[in-house]
């Protein structure tokens, strides 16, 4: 490993809440010193960060890498390259691949392939039930040993609450975390958009907010009964966030995140059936979007994720109701977070905490700039403007509602384990 000096950068530490212009010294894949070189330090490589921000690498809690099984949409190589291009050094992938990540061998193989790429770190989430069918609980202990950081159903809810109850009891006994997307399937049916006036005018089948709130209420009740630790993925509604806020006030071990798309967009942005705006959960009302921003500001929402879901053109060039859900997001996580922070007058350390130190804490490590911490870093120009042009994205998925939009905040270097993996 090279000894690296990152010189004259503005060091932003989201854990300490500080900003300072100083030098950063890296050795053996870790932060060796701040400001003054440690004794005997010999510089092998210097990165001039004058005028740039130096911060912990981003941690994305929800990024579909499409392997195994969906390589026509994206490959592990293309999406890990997209991750480091976006300053993301730790990627959490859900289990809804093909085959599903419900066996330890599949998990170990995926982790080994990601390690061989030598780009971002990969944190797989194991399937909660075999085949995500919601009937038989997986061998969680074996999956945990293989490297799974939590257990999830992806976007496939468990219809039988008895199965979820047993799974939460088991997880609680061993201290495992469940990551659940709160949605009552029977209230979704063939819905494709938020159930409101706008969907009605467009003639689109709606998904009501109660599909989320009923699921949240059930999960909270089961948490009370089992003591299980739960993370709610991609909250979308004001009413759902009110339930989360109350559960947290009660002291339940509950965390949640929101997709970067739902911070900036609402159902009215669908326009004239633009399939780029089809997401799961759907974009909801403007009032829900505003409630999401409020919940980010007051700490109800713990983290922001990209909800990266590469979709090929064939999946999007369909009528809205038939189009595939999702968009590319790894390379947009940083600038869209900075956009939210700017609009709400949120400090840079506070904003970066939502996409680095707070999700890192859920994974069991510290994403700060203290001596001894892992040297997973992003160096970016907070004042650089760039335009989202599909052909310039590293991700194999080129579809996003932000095509053509101007972004502020450009990654210049990404380091993982003290090694430059993007420049």
Task: Describe the 3D structure.
With 423 residues, this protein is of the alpha/beta class. 30% of the residues lie in helices and 23% in strands. It contains 13 helices and 19 strands. Strands 1, 2, 3, 4, 5, 17, 18 and 19 form an eight-stranded mixed sheet that branches. The protein has a six-stranded parallel sheet with strand order 9-10-11-14-15-16. Helix 7 runs parallel beside helix 9. The longest helix is centred in the middle third of the chain and has 17 residues. The protein is globular and about 65 Å long. 54% of the residues are buried.
Question: What is the overall pLDDT average?
Answer: 97
Main pleated sheet: 8 strands, mixed
| Estimated helix fraction | 25-40%
DSSP strand count: 19
How far is the N terminus from the C terminus?
17 Å
With helices defined by DSSP (H or I, 4 residues minimum), what is the helix count?
Answer: 13
**Amount of beta strand:** 15-25%
Cα radius of gyration in angstroms: 21 Å
Q: What is the SS-derived class?
A: alpha/beta
Provide the low-confidence segments as ranges.
none
Overall, the morphology is: globular
């Amino acid at each position: 490993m090279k000894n690296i000096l990152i010189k004259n950068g503005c060091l932003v530490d989201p854990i300490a809440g500080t900003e300072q212009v100083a030098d950063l010294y890296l050795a053996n894949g870790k932060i060796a010193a701040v400001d003054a070189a440690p004794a005997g330090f010999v510089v092998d490589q210097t990165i001039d960060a004058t005028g740039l921000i130096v911060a912990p690498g981003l941690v994305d809690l929800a990024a579909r890498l499409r392997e195994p099984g969906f390589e026509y949409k994206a490959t592990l190589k293309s999406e890990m390259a997209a991750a480091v291009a976006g300053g993301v050094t730790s990627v959490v992938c859900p289990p809804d691949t093909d085959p599903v990540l419900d066996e330890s061998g599949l998990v170990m193989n995926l982790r080994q392939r990601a390690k061989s790429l030598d780009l971002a770190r990969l944190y797989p989430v194991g399937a909660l039930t075999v085949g995500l069918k919601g009937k038989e609980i997986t061998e969680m202990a074996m999956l945990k040993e293989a490297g799974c950081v939590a257990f999830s159903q992806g976007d496939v809810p468990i219809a039988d609450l008895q199965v979820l109850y047993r799974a939460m009891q088991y997880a609680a006994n061993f201290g495992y975390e469940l990551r659940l997307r709160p949605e009552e399937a029977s209230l979704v049916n063939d819905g494709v958009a938020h159930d409101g006036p706008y969907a009605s005018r467009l003639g689109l089948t709606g998904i009501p907010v109660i599909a989320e709130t009923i699921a949240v209420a059930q999960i909270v009740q089961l948490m009370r009964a089992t003591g299980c630790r739960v993370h709610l993925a991609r909250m979308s509604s004001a009413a759902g966030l009110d339930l989360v806020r109350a559960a947290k006030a009660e002291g339940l071990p509950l965390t949640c995140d929101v997709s970067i798309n739902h911070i900036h967009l609402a159902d009215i942005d669908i326009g004239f059936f633009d399939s780029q705006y089809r997401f799961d959960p759907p974009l909801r009302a403007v009032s829900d979007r505003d409630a999401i921003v409020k919940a980010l500001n007051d700490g109800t929402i713990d983290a922001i994720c990209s909800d990266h879901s590469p979709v090929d053109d064939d999946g999007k060039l369909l009528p809205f109701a038939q189009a595939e859900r999702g968009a590319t997001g790894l390379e947009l996580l940083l600038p869209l977070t900075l956009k939210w922070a700017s609009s709400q007058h949120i400090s840079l350390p506070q904003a970066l905490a939502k996409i680095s130190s707070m999700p890192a804490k859920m994974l069991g490590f510290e994403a700060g700039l203290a001596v001894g911490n892992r040297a997973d870093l992003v160096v970016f120009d907070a004042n650089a403007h760039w335009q989202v042009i599909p052909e310039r994205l590293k991700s194999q998925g080129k579809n996003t509602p932000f095509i053509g939009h101007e972004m502020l905040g450009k990654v210049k270097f990404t380091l993982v384990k003290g090694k430059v993996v993007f420049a």
